[in-house]
Amino acid sequence: MQLVFLGTGGYHPNERRHTASLLLPDIGVALDAGTGFFRVQKAIRSSTLDVFLTHAHLDHICGLTFILVPLLRGDLDRVRVFGTQETIHAVQTHLLANELFPIEPDFEWHVLDGIVPLPASVPLPASVPLPASVALPGGGKLTWSSLQHPGGSVGFRLDWPGKSLAYITDTTAPGNYADFVRGVDVLIHECYFPDELDDWAIKTGHSSSSNVARLAKEANVKRLYLIHVDPQRPDDDPVGMDGIRAIFPHAHLAEDLMEIEF
Question: How confident is the model at residue 131 (pLDDT cuts 50, 70, 90)?
Answer without folding.
Answer: low
